[in-house]
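Example 3.2
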Amino acid sequence: MIENWKLEDKEFNSRLMIGSALYPSPEIMAKSIKASGSQIVTVALRRQSATNLEGGNQFWEIIKELGVTVLPNTAGCHTAKEAITTAMMARELFDVNWIKLEVIGNQYNLQPDPFALVEATKVLIDEGFRVLPYMTDDLVLAQKLADLGCTTLMPWGSPIGSGRGLMNPYNLKVIRKQFPNLNLIVDAGIGKPSDAIEAMELGYDGVLLNSAVALAQEPIKMAEAFKYAIYAGRLSYEAGAMQKRDMASPSTPTVGTPFWHQFS
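Structure, written as tokens:
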């Protein structure tokens, strides 16, 4: 049995975090989130408005009915100032002090801007936020964010929505080794359940994904697949996988005489 996971000041029994965008319909979104077992749903203020009478109210009612914890994010922000303003709005709207901080620096691959990310993180931590920064798999950047007071880091597996899985497992492994006491979550680029398993087997504490479920041919089934992938990956990490070998090693030793020879 996997122990509960403490993330910031909250406790959860699922290590899968899921997004709320891109689904074919609000109904499929709700059913997918339920099937995933996720207790944390990310919401972008720039995509949804609680005061939008046409569609916003329906969206928020669905989120409330799911009984999940909302993690607001600053998706779509391209400057530190934009991200800071959006985070302030999120705190007022949701009455929460945590934020998934995104500051996009390149529109081609949606790579986070490391300089603006550090700038916004410093301001928001000084304002009392618990900042969960979306970042590249850069060890130096990770150290700067940790030094500012981040207790959770969210390095990408690969660019947002690319479905390319873990581009650089080595970098992710090094970050895990260097920050054993921080919560580390692979965010972005996960395309299939086996990618999530790989991330969890590296010792990551959780995975955040959206497109892999929302854009699947059958989102609800895919959400359930990720639920079990996260569980399997974490169990595998805790169990300790065998080491790779250069040579074959028989599972049944060939020492001595086969026992059936005794009866010939």
